[in-house]
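User: Sequence in, structure out. Go.
Assistant: Echoing your sequence, followed by the C-alpha cells.
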Amino acid sequence: MSVAEARYPDAPVEVVKAWWEMGHRYIAGALLALVFAMFVVAWRGREEDTPTTLLSALLVIIICQAAFGAWTVTLKLWPQVVTAHLLGGFTTLSLLWLLLLRQGGLPQVHKGLPMPGKHAVLALAVVIGQIALGGWVSSNYAALACHDFPSCDGSYTPTIDLAEGFNVFQGVGPSYLGGLMDNEARKAIHWVHRLGAIVVAVVVIGLALRLMQANRLLATAMLVALAAQIMLGVLNVVWVLPLINATLHNVVGALLLITLVTVNFAPRLRVLAASPGP
C-alpha cells in the first residue's frame, strides 16, 4: 500500500474500496473460468442437444467485459466505457438467464408465453434504452442534478443542455471521477432519464396486461419490478442517493430486464429445444 501511495500521491489507497474492487475482479475471473469450462463440455458434446451458441456468445461477452473493466480503470472512468461496462454486465446476466431456461430450468416462468410480437420487442428496446440512460446518468454523476421530485429544482421546464449532456465524444485523458459536465448538462441527462421512465412505464404496463392471461406469474413479476424500480428511482433523489438504494436500483432494473428477455426469447428457445437435433 505504501508503494502505491508513493507512486500515486494524488490518489490515496482506500482499503475498503480496494477490497470491493478486488472482490469484483475475483468473481469475474471465476465466472470466466466457469463459463469456459461449460463451453468446453458443450463443444465436446455438440452432437447432442447442447447450447453451444449461447455459451459462445456468453464467453465472448465476458471476455469483452474484462476488457471494459480494465479500460474503466486505465481510462479513468471515461463515461462511454463505464456505460458500456454496465450494459455488458446486464447482457451477461441475460445470457446466463437464457441458458438456465434453455436447459429446462424454471419452466413455469415462461409456460404459455406466445411468440413475441411488436409490443414485446418495443418493451425490450425501451427498457434497454432506459438502462443505457441510467448508466449515462451514473457515469456522469447526474443522479442528483435535480434536487427534488417530481419537478427539477422547482421547475417542470428546467434549463438543460442536451448537446453537452449527450456528447458521446468526450475526450479521453482526464479523470472523470466526480464528473466533468456543468450542471445544465447533468440536468439534461437526469431529466431525459425521468421522461424515459414514463415511456417505459406506459409500454411495459401495456405489455404486462396483455400477458396476464397467458402467464400471470411473469406478468405480475414484470409489474412489481417496474413499480419497485420507479420507487427506487424517486427515492434516489428524495434520500440523496444512499448507496444501498442506488445498488437496489441496478438490481431491480436487471430483474425488469430479465422479464422482458424472457418474453422475447424464451418462446423461441422452447421451440428450438423441442425441435429434433441434427
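User: And one key feature?
Assistant: The longest helix spans residues 243-274.
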